[in-house]
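Practice problem 4.
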């Protein structure tokens, strides 16, 4: 597995909140040298596909492809092989797809990397979305509290060969205890002190999250909606030093 970021800015992945390819590429170009990478999500990929992905990737920053694959094992493995030529730094699957799906995802990532001559991407499992809380879990039939569910999924993902987990800042300690020191924790729900929380229910400042054990911070609007995105990203990185 690749080493954890060695410089504070490398811990920051900026989540783009646009489907405009030109705007996304311009923002990636603006942020080069101030963040560790760019997160492209489902909305962007559905709107723009491979060509849009390549436009942003051509700006030279690592890409976190956040498509949250969740289907039967064969379909997920096939989807991972399909995106392997794009060589993302990391991509996501849903841990609730089950053990066999996760094992097949890890295998497909390795096979795809070998076939195309790329470094194997991190396969990152989504645990409990940061827009959900305990009442939301109860509504869909999960009786455990959010922290217990995240810890269970972290341990299961590690056992299935998954490289890391997406979890909220509030579950970092439990996920780390469940899956060990070399398991990557990718943490959204990050808001600098004083920032608007928005639709996230479980948030923390960048420094608090890194101190708690986060490897990668996913930060969107505090950077993308700033008057000077590069300066905003730099300020966040400096707060981690």
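Answer key:
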């Amino acid at each position: 597995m690749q080493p954890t970021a060695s410089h504070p800015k490398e811990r920051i992945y900026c989540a783009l909140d646009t489907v405009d390819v030109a705007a996304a590429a311009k923002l990636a170009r603006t942020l080069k040298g101030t963040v560790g990478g760019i997160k492209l999500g489902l909305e962007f990929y559905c709107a723009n596909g491979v060509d849009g992905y390549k436009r942003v990737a051509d700006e030279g920053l690592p890409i976190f492809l956040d498509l949250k694959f969740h289907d039967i094992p064969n379909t997920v493995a096939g989807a991972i092989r399909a995106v392997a030529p794009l060589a993302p730094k990391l991509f996501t699957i849903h841990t609730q797809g089950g053990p066999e799906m996760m094992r097949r995802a890890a295998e497909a990532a390795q096979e795809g990397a070998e076939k195309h001559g790329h470094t194997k991407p991190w396969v990152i499992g989504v645990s409990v979305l940061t827009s959900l809380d305990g009442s939301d879990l109860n509504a869909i039939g999960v009786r455990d509290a959010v922290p217990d569910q995240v810890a269970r999924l972290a341990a299961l993902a590690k056992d299935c060969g998954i490289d890391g987990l997406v979890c909220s800042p509030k579950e970092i300690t439990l996920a780390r205890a469940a899956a060990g020191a070399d398991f990557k924790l990718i943490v959204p729900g990050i808001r600098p002190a004083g920032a608007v929380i928005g639709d996230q229910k479980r948030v923390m400042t960048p420094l608090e999250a890194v101190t708690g054990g986060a490897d990668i911070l996913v930060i969107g609007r505090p950077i993308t909606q700033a008057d000077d995105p590069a300066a905003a990203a730099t300020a966040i990185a400096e707060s981690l030093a």
